[in-house]
Every structure is written in structure tokens, then in C-alpha cells.
Specification:
about 160 residues; alpha+beta; 60s Ribosomal Protein L30, Chain: A; two-stranded antiparallel ribbon; 6 strands; about 25% helix
Amino acid sequence: MKWHLSFDIPGDPVGKGRPRGTIMGGRVRMYTPAATARYEDRVAYRASLAIEAAGLDTPCVGPVRLSIVARLRRPQKPARAHEARAGTLGPHGRRYATKRPDIDNIAKSIADGLQLCNVFADDRSIAELSVLKVWAADDEAPGCGVTVSPVRGCDG
């Protein structure tokens, strides 16, 4: 059976927050912001459900292809600047979203969540990355569609 994983993460996409630091006992302690940690846990949970449903062994070994389609909640009354930029049609007639979170931070939080549940041993194995950020259609909920597959052969 070919190794392939596809699943959806419901809810608003959350970008990777900057690490924070605090001083405890004269030492600096670094930590991930709570919103980021909760989102990475949600990614790991949804991925583990998909792995179990597909009957896959993990981790996927070798170079990995990660594809993400982030669907953002469209504001009730978008700012004119967002509307002007969002006029560009993307694939399948979808309009690009140009508001936060940043596309690279979405990818980082999802990759770290996938690493939490051992989809791959380390996110360094991501050799191909595709991220699309669009407005959610009227009939769909915000969230992220995620697909992980080997670039070539996976012994996972």
C-alpha cells in the first residue's frame, strides 16, 4: 500500500507564534505561545485520527511532500485594501486571502504538529511544500486541508 495521508483541520488556521522567554531562577526559559501549542496539538490529533483510519505505519521515511490549503474565514465587512487584493482569482476560482496569519507561519505550525504525532521523524524531511491561502467559500467552514505523501518511495 502506498503511503498517503490526507485530512482536514477544522477551525481558523493559526500561524506559528514567536517563541517567548521568561527568567526563572536566573535562567532564561523559552516556551511556545499557548495558542500555537493548542493548534499544534489539534493538528497532531487530527493527523493521528487520519493515520489510524488509513492504517498507515509512521513515520514516513525519506523526502516528504506537504500540501496545505488554508481556508480563512471571510470578514463580514472586509477592509477595502483586503478586498482589492482579494480580487485575484486563484485555482478553482477561489479568491486569495491576504490577511493574517502569514502563510509561512501556517506551514510551520502544521509541520510542527505533524512532527508531534510522528508523521515524519523531523520536519527537515519536507522536501516539497505547497501552501495556498484562500477565503473560505460561503458553504464551507474555515480550516486547513493537509496532504502528506512521499516524494519517492516511503518505507514507513
